Structures are given as structure tokens and as C-alpha cells.
Amino acid sequence: MGHQPALDGIRGLAVLAVLVLHAGAPSWLPGGFLGVSLFFTLSGHLIASLVLAEVEHRGGLGLSGFWARRVRRLVPALIITVIGVATLSRLMELPASTRSELLGGLGYVANWVQISGGESYAALFESPSAATHLWSLAIEEQFYLVFPFAAWLVARRSRFGLRSGLVVGGLVVAVVGSLAAAAIEDQVFTYYSTLTRVPEIAVGVAVAGIWPMGRARTWWDERFGGDRTHSPVAKRHPPWLPVIVANVVGIAALVTTLVAWRTTDLSTGWVYGGGLVVLAIVSVALVVAAGAPGLLSRGLSVAPLRGLGAISYGLYLYHWPVVVVASPPRVDLRPVPLFVLRAGLSVGLAMLSFRFVEQPIRHARWERGASPAKVITVGLVSLALTGLVVIGVVDGAGTPEPVVRPAPAVVRPGTPDAGDLANGDEVSPSDVPTVVLLGDSLPNWLIRDGGWALDPAEVSLIDGTNEGCDGAEGAPVGRAGTGVVVTLPDSCTGWRSMYPQVLDGRPVDVAVLAIGAGAVLDRQLDGEFVGPCQAEAQDWYGTDVVQRLEFLSARSDRVVLLLPVWGEEGSGWVYPSDHLARMDCVRATMLRSARSVPGVDVLDLAEEICPDGPGMCQPVRKNDGVHIDSDSAAEVLGWIIDLAVG
């Protein structure tokens, strides 16, 4: 099978999409994750074509030889990545999932580790694991392990031949997997599972049975190259007609791919409903058309894309750990210079790895005499030894859950009031002001970490907070600064159903609404993500806040709106890079809402935390840049309650 530079260009384009998504601003290329889908389809077409060529030219398939070539190609850079991330775990704080993800990567089951892991809302504010991206390599390796054996069986036993087996088998897998994706409601499972992602590979396999890779150039040369005098095809059609058709189809597929990358994000429904198979059909059309001479092939064969394609495997492996390290608060740069730094480091590491590790091992002279079994054994032993290093170096315990101290002044809905629980008869329930605190994780964690310090003889605090949910009507999902869609807990059904459960049947003196921290994110309204400074988001959120304040005014003697405060540098994993300007918009929207409802008082959290403005805040949010640290929670919560009651 001859080398096709245009296919290197496709690889380069796919890895560039992933790099722009992860290393750049989330809004640059929100669908860059679809570059992985292009990789899947290209790999399926390539591997099936290689297997088919070996069967047809040699009369059989050497399984051990195939797997030995995969070991030489894939294992060295993976081991470097795993050891590098393990080393990072000793130098910086990484989440507890890092160890399991590294071990899953070594065992090529990282996608199932992602599915089984699960993360709390608090984990969103941690520095992400530097090994999360290994999930896609696991799916490809599972394919590399199973497919050759299945092809070997078909070639030996099927009377219809391997080509028919590829077409039929590929179509069956694609259809079954797509139906499963459409039927399964768990988006995490749909996105990471082999069952629902292998159809993208299967499309490439099916087309290889009809149009194997490497045959395209021969086909064109036989029919439209050289002496066409005796070509029956050339006599029926002008030689340029098929070239034009192929290029038009290929360019249309390329444009469709680029549009999908630009307009799709992880909240788009078709990503989880089996639509990735349709994208795989577009991808395989691009791959096949790239084999034809013409504008498309020349465009994909330009040196920069071919260069990225040559190092695409190492670049994919190394870029994500680089992104994790080169992020706030360690690196404080604007999006463009930050992307240049991350991309430059990633490409540099990939080039060094390709030149001095991957290629020497792949083509080493001493390996030419090594049997495939020996190569496979060395690879497996190396993976196992690396796993022992991970177990010994990477801490798997993670950050312990916070210790919740008894808080006698805090009342959860459905429990007696604090006045009823006060010791002695000196204080009656009517003498203790009742305050209800409503909001998201910011007040939720304040109560969790500082509620113990409140005196039940002075205040009864009803906890109406919900971690990860500010109660916005319709519960729109948000998009974090990394481009990840922030899912909401099942209990987050909107304030119209949540607030009555807290307030109805309970007398309240003061209602404090503490929201807005999550409004900094892009939110999905009418199918589109919009930022808090856009008029559509301001109108929607402003109206929502007004309606909440009116609801609370009818059920309490006093209503206080707590304005949120700007995030710190460490909030970059959740907040977008322009979060300071976004928070200004959120604060302005909330202030306008409060002024439009008579009798609502405004309490500005910035007066306590950031009296000198953004960037000059008190050091009380060292953990994640958003939530108050546990050792400062009691003081901040006390400040809010004192001013709300006073």
C-alpha cells in the first residue's frame, strides 16, 4: 500500500481540531472533539485495508505480526505519557481519578474507567486529570485487538470472502451501535462506550470492503493515467469527469466537516443520538476522495498538515498534559498567547518523541530479527512495569471529603426549627429570627463549612441551597471554560418547584437569594449557548431573578439579594478566560432586577471579599478561586447573616 500524503493531511487536520479545542478558547472551535471521530473512521478504513491487502496478497493474515506492529507503533509514546503524568502528580495536585485513568490507559480500557468513575460537582473545580484523553486510544486499541482476529476467521471460514465480510460486518456494527446510541439516555455512556463509538470505525471498515485504501491511486492511474487508448472507461467518459466528481464530493465532505466542528458542541443532541455515524459517512467520503488527483488532494498534502499528521499520535498524547500544566494559576496569559504556548510545547514534545523514540523503536535494526511474539511480550511487560510505577507513584486516595461539623442553628427542610432545638426555655421560637438561604454551591458550601458557628439562640437558618444548581427556571445547562458542558443534578428542576418545598408552611423573616456564580458560564437558551453579556441572556436571567424576588417577597418579611463576586485566577477550569467582564454583566443584570422589585435589599459580597475590586480580593478562595475556603466560611457566612437580619 503506497503512501498517500493527503491522508497525513487528514490526520493533521483532525489532531489540529482537538488541539484548538483544548488549547484555545472554548468558543474558537467548540466541535473540535469531532476530530476524534474523524480519527476513528480513518483508522477503521486504514486497518481494514491493510488486513485485506495482506489476505489477498499473501493468502492469509499473520495475527502476531499485525499485533507486533501495533505494539511497536503505539506503546512507546503511551509509556512516556503515562510516566510523565505520574511525575506531574508528584509536582502538582491532580484529581483522585488520575491513577485509575492512567492504569486504564495502560490496559486500554480507559473509556470504561471514565464511564464507571463518576465525578461530584466539586470535582469540576479541581485541576482536571492529565490522562482523561486516553479514552479514545482505548477504543481504537480494542478495535485493533478484536478486528484482525474476526477478519482472520472470516477469511478462513466464510465462502463469501473477506471483502463481503467487511461490508456486511461493518454495516451490522454501524447499525446496531447507532440504534444503541439512540436508545441509551446516559450521555456519558453514549460518548465513551465502545458499543456506541465503534460504529464510526465500522463505517470505515465497510467502505474498505468496497474501496480499499491504496487502491485509489492505482485505479486512477489504470483508467485515467498514462495511455488511455485502450481504456473502456476513458472511451465512455472524458478522463476529467470522475476527477471532478471526486473532488466535488470530497470538498463538500471537507466543508461539512469544518462546519460541524465550528457549530457543534458537547450539548448537541445528535452527538449522542447516533448522529456520529452520519458524520462518519462524511469522513469516509473525504478519505476516499483524497485519493483522487486534484485540488482536494493537493490542499490536504500541504507541508504543515502533513507534518502534523506525521506526529499526530504523539501530539494527541502529549497535548492534554501540557494544557493541564500550562493553565491558571500557573500560567496567566490571554487566549491567543496561551494557545501559542500550549501548541508550541505540544508540537515540540511530539516532534522530539517522533524523532528520538517512536521512529527509532518502530524501525530499529535489532527488532528486525525479533519474532512477533517477542515484540508483543516485551510490550506487555513494559506496560505492566509502567503500571507498577503508576501504583507506586500516583496517589489514588484523592482529597478527603470535608468534615461536616454539627450545626444546631441550621435547619433542613422537613426538620424542626432551630428555636425548638435550643437548650433551655430562655429563648422561644418567636424570639429567634428565621432566615432562609437559597442558592447554589457557594452558599451551600458556606453552610456546610461554616454553619456550625451560628448560634441557634440568635438565628434559625433554613438551608434552601442546592449544590451545582442556582434554581434558574428551565434548568439550562452551562458550558465551562474548558468547553465541557456542566450537567445539572437531578434535583435541579427550577425554582418554581424547588422553592415551595423549602418555604411553604414555614414562617420566614428574611429570605436571602445568593446566586449568580454559575451565570458567568455560557448557558444554553433555545438550543444556542449565549454568554451573560449578550442581550438575550441578560433579558432571560434578569426576568428570572425578578420573578424569584417577587415570589420571595410574598412569603417573607424581608428579601435580600446577595450579589456574587468576581472569581480568582484559579477559577479558570470552570470559568471562561474573560470571567471578570462576564461577572460585571451578571452583577449589573442582578442589580437591575433588584431595583425593579420594591422592598428588596441588596448585599454585595464584594464588600467583604473584594473591597478593592477584582484581582485584589482577600485570600479566602485559595482552593478553587470561586468557593470560600473552609477555614473562612464561618466568618463570611456570619457576615451575610448579620447584615441580612440587621
Q: Would you kindly provide a written description of the structure presented here, covering whatever features stand out?
A:
The protein is built from 27 helices and ten strands. The model is unreliable at 226-230 and 418-428 (pLDDT under 50). It is an alpha/beta fold and 646 residues long. The chain folds into two domains: 5-393, no CATH class; 410-645, Rossmann fold (3-Layer(aba) Sandwich). The termini are far apart. A hairpin with a 2-residue loop joins strand 7 and strand 8 (528-530).
Compute the separation of the termini in Å: 81 Å
**Spatial strand order of the main sheet:** 1-3-2-6-9-10
Helix content: 55-70%
**Contiguous runs where pLDDT drops below 50 for at least 5 residues:** 226-230, 418-428
Domain count, please report it: 2
Q: What is the mean predicted local confidence, pLDDT? A: 88
Which shape, going by the Cα principal axes?
Answer: elongated
Main beta sheet strand tally, sense and closure: 6 strands, parallel
Strand content is 5-15%
Tally of helical runs: 27
Give a quick precis of the structure.
The chain contains 27 helices and 10 strands. The protein has 646 residues and is α/β, with parallel strands linked by helices.
Which features does this protein show?
646 residues; 59% helix; alpha/beta; single chain; six-stranded parallel beta sheet; 2 domains; 10 strands; Rossmann fold; four-stranded antiparallel beta sheet
